[in-house]
Amino acid sequence: MAATYKIYLVNLQLESKKFWCFLDQAIRGLSSDKVLGNSNAFLTVPTFGPNRQDLFSIPSAYTLGVGASKKPVERYNFIESTYMVPLALEEGWLASYFQNGENRGPILTADRPTNKKDIRVSTNVYDKKKEPINDWYGSMTFGIKSDNVSIGNTWSPDSDRSYYIRPRFNFFITTGSYEPRHLVDLQAIEANAARVGRSNFDAALKCTVILHTDGSWTVQAGDPSQLPILFKLSCRLKNTSQLLMKISETSLFTNPFKHF
What we know:
The strands form four sheets. This protein has a six-stranded antiparallel β-sheet with strand order 8-7-12-13-4-16. The chain has a five-stranded mixed β-sheet with strand order 3-14-11-9-10, with no helix packed on it. A four-stranded mixed β-sheet has the order 6-1-18-19, with no helix packed on it. It has helices at residues 131-134, 186-191, 229-254, and strands at 4-11, 17-23, 27-28, 36-39, 42-45, 55-59, 62-69, 83-86, 92-96, 107-111, 119-123, 137-145, 150-155, 162-165, 171-175, 184-185, 194-196, 206-211, 217-221. It is elongated. The termini are far apart. It is mostly beta strands. The model is unreliable at 250-260 (pLDDT under 50). The protein is built from three helices and 19 strands.
């Protein structure tokens, strides 16, 4: 059974924020601009409180998916795999795509194994140039999928090519108004996100990601109960001070004569 890693979320801002989890690029030999993020993992997290338990639970189990649809692999498009298989290191897979005008989805079959650190997926020979002509675009997605979480890297595969995937279990935690399973620019995500890797987790496979009032991030091992007491106290005092200031500003705006 795959181990489950837990990423706890702490929001120190005054308003609720929608937190997202994206998987870092893991496709060797592909430039970052060719690989897009694909996620349905989000949580709306209120301001930090002593009894809150907001977290992403992520299994260390990988999947490979292939699909085809009338939407190309581009930012903002909804892309879904129609054929998926669980993955293990050293495995090789062959993805077969079809451009015969019949809108047929691709399939995956087992292929010769590869080295101990990677997973290899190869594509068959097909006429990729016909994609815009047939209005039928192939896609390939590597990622993590469970009953509750689906996060991955999606790209447009070329004909007769091998891709080597090296799982690193690295994630980006960010906030924003994204759409589930709609492709996003991972480079843009990375610029404003907390980066989480295996080394950030404690022995119990837990870590905490903190969004500060100034928009900066902190990542530390353990769950929020392990945060230093002085840190939690200062957070509460800071939030209380900011809240009182906001109430004061609102009162002054709505009733300018109240304080004179």
